[in-house]
Amino acid sequence: IVLTGGDDHLWKTWGFPDGNILLTGEGHTDWLSGCCFRPSGTQLVTSSGDTTVRIWDLSRRGCVLTLRGHSRGVRGCSWHSCGDFVASASMDGTSKIWDVNSERCRYTLRGHEDSVNSIEFLPFSSTVVTSSADKTLSLWDVRTVSRL
After folding, report:
1. For 122-140, what is each residue's pLDDT tens digit?
2. Domain count within the chain
3. CA nearest to 24, candidates 32, 13, 38, 34
4. Any signal peptide, and if so, which residues (predicted)?
5. Would you call the peptide bond into 39 cis, given omega within 30 degrees of 0 as the criterion?
6. pTM as predicted
């Protein structure tokens, strides 16, 4: 299964090798920039130009949580390997760590001077890496909300 998102505001799962569309999700009101599966495979997260991050439940075929807090479009998202946290990177110059269980922002990472374009958790750690239009990469310890 492959997961995609695009300018049509939709995410889609595709079966391979046939290339059949298995599921389609709608609800964002602007382009999708990122999408990835929860490590358990039961949910996915999407990020969008509409400033939101959304959690989707595949068995329910719908959005179960909309995370709001960025002031500009969200350029990327990723799940922590434990499946309890989602990270987002925004054109507002910040990144956020979201606690999926409490449905709130746990930390806001500030320090880039321009749009944050991508974010990834390092596997099995509390470290994230961000890339920015300010031409820098940063490593962050999300427990202390500080750059490494």
Report:
1. 999 999 999 999 999 999 9
2. 1
3. 13
4. none
5. no
6. 0.93
Please provide the size of the chain in residues.
148
Instruction: Quote the CA–CA distance of 87 and 95 in Å, as a whole number.
Output: 7
Cα dihedral sign, 72-128-12-37: negative
Q: Which structural domain, as residue segments, surrounds residue 132?
A: 2-147
Structure tokens at 142: 């999300």
SS3 31: coil
**Interatomic CA distance for residues 83 and 80, integer angstroms:** 5
Note the pLDDT tens digit of each residue in 17-55: 899 999 999 999 999 999 999 999 899 999 999 999 999
For the chain, where are the alpha helices, taking DSSP H only? Answer: none
CATH of the domain at 102: 2.130.10.10
Alpha carbons within 13 A on the beta-carbon side of 40: 10
